[in-house]
Amino acid sequence: MTAVRKETCDSVPPPHVIAHLDDDAFNTKFNEVRRRKMRMAPSLSENPKGYFGFKRRIKVEMRRYTIAFKEAHGGRARHIQGSGGSGPSKHVRRRPVRGKGQLHDSGPNERGPSTDASALVKRFKVRFPDEKTFKVAGRSEDISDPSVLTNMTRRYFSFRSFGKDGEDRLLEKLDKLGRVYDATVTESYRFSLDSELPETFKSVEEMPPAADLDDVLNKIRAKDAWARSKGAGVSIAIVDTGIDGARPEFPDWKRGSIPALQYEQPKWRDDLGHGTMCACIAAAAGGEGVEFTGVAPEAMLIDCKTRFFEEEIEAIFMDLAKLAGNGTPVVASNSWGYKPDDIPPRETLEDVEAAIAAAYSSGVVSVFSAGNNHILAGGDKESDTPNSIYTFKSRSDLLAVGGCDLRDKIWHYSSRGPGERHGEDGMSAKPDVVAPTPERGKVLYGGKAMVGPVGWGTSGAAPQVSGLAALLLTTRPDLPPSELFDIIRESALMLPYPAVTVGHGVIDCNAAVSSI
Asked: Which of 73, 248, 391, 442 has its CA 20 to 30 A from that of 51?
């Protein structure tokens, strides 16, 4: 067996060594260094354990390499400066949206853009002027890549690229499509997580917990509601970073799926941990020897793993609409959005909003975190202004959920309403309700229990409401989303805050289920 080398690679350069590199030169250097490092790896066939251990160390060191580059350039993220090659084409539109192409979290403590390989992935949307040209283009070999997403209703294809070289090659192909079919090519918007950051979560050894998920279940009276319903027969879709299927909270019987799912990612894996937290809160199975139990322990879970590109979100909601249309009660739990400095133009969200509306019409119950943007938007800890619930989260066909602690005190970061688009047709005052996440609260984050010093963000509040929706749908599977929304709002316990801060108050599962 080949021995594992201790020297993994060159030392990470100090910022001044790579300060002269621009973005493209850095990408080239990054790939060159990574390839050189991997040539030192043990043989995969002779020493697979050593190989994968070596690869993990390389990944950590390359993250440090990227961080060094960002520090040398004042922490800036990569931005688009044209279409590459021979210059910008009239068919290719690049959006100068800050943070785009970077997966980043939105929470009380900001980490900034991700430095892992997922940050190098981009998507581009090619929209056709009419149905005829869309169908003709769909029969061409340019659309043959299995990673291409298709939206027949909105007449577009979505293509994926990885890295600068891959992006340049893709743009050449898309420019050709634009010229031949008079199609419009735009870079896709990428949403952010609404979460506490993984770095702010502490190990149980580092920070002994003061409360846990069980205390939350008692607070919202979920256990009292279990006498009538535990969520059986309902599917909760976790639209997030994935779910760690190695945990006993997610046994095989709990794992649902979507037939003919268009957008497919490796399921029951979670490299970040955020989606696992949301799934645990909503519907962890519990039972003997299992650490956590969720709000709806008998509900099924659908792992809708995504990188949060707009087309991926649209494809997921369209697939959920088909599932609900076939008679399955479906709840979509969403703990993602955007930061105040990264809000897309309204027209960018038209396709996403159309997909949410179609899902609602099919009976899908959509629950969203209100966001953790109050302080980021310039609000004071004790203030109820400014508004920090943005764009489509004002829609009346979804529930937006804020966060409080176990003592009913609103969390300082929880986004305030009434919503950026409140007053427009199809919009309503937000947040709808709030749900508690405890200070120094223990919850499953990724593969192990972690402690959130300042709660779990509104990301941890939304899946509580998703679980409550499942409890209601078990009791009455034909309950329309609009009536379900009213039940959740009207059964909530009002708190001593304005409606723009807490909506109708903190959820009460037992009162909601008992009202049917």
From this structure: 248
User: How many angstroms separate the CA atoms of 147 and 145, rounded?
Assistant: 5
| Tokens at 102, concatenated | 């970077």
Partnered with residue 240 across adjacent β-strands are 305
What secondary structure, in 3-state letters, does 366-380 show?
A: EEEECCCCCCCCCCC
Inter-residue contact 131 to 175 (CB < 8 Å): no
Contact 136, 181 (CB under 8 A): yes
Any idea which residue has 């997610």 for tokens? 250
Residues 375, 378, 439: CA angle, nearest 5 degrees: 10
CB 256 within 8 A of CB 235: yes
Residue 7 CB coordination number (10 Å): 8
CA-CA distance, 322 to 307, in Å (whole number)?
22
Q: Among residues 389, 378, 350, 377, which one has the least CA distance to residue 503?
A: 389
Q: What is the pTM of this model?
A: 0.79
The mean-pLDDT minimum among 198-212, 321-335, 464-478 falls in 198-212
- Report the distance separating Cα 247 and Cα 424, nearest Å: 44
Euclidean distance between CA atoms 402 and 445, whole angstroms:
20
d(CA 420, CA 392): 9
What is the rounded end-to-end Cα distance, in angstroms, of the chain?
66
Exposed e or buried b per residue across 73-111, where buried means at least 16 C-beta atoms within 10 angstroms of its C-beta: beeebbebeebbeeebbebbebeebebbbbbbbbbbeee
Q: Residue 166, Cβ neighbours under 10 Å: how many?
A: 14
Closest among 168, 190, 188, 197 to 99, alpha carbons compared: 190
Tens of pLDDT, residues 132-158: 999 999 887 677 777 889 999 999 999
* pLDDT tens string 395-414: 999 999 999 999 999 999 99
Amino acid, single-letter form, for residue 493: L
Query: Which residues, at least 6 apart from 109, have a Cβ–Cβ distance to it below 8 Å?
Result: 196, 197, 199, 200
Nearest 10 degrees: CA dihedral of 51, 56, 58, 61? -160
Query: Residue 76: is its pLDDT beyond 70?
Result: no
371's CB contacts (< 8 A; 6+ apart) are 106, 194, 337, 338, 388, 389, 390, 393, 414, 415, 458
Q: What is the spatial order of strands in the sheet that 202-203 belongs to?
A: 202-203, 448-454, 439-445, 211-212
Characterise 116 by phi-psi region: left (phi > 0), alpha (psi -120 to 50), beta (else).
beta
Query: Which run of H or of E encompasses 158?
Result: strand 156-162
**Short-list 27, 10, 26, CA closest to 18:** 26
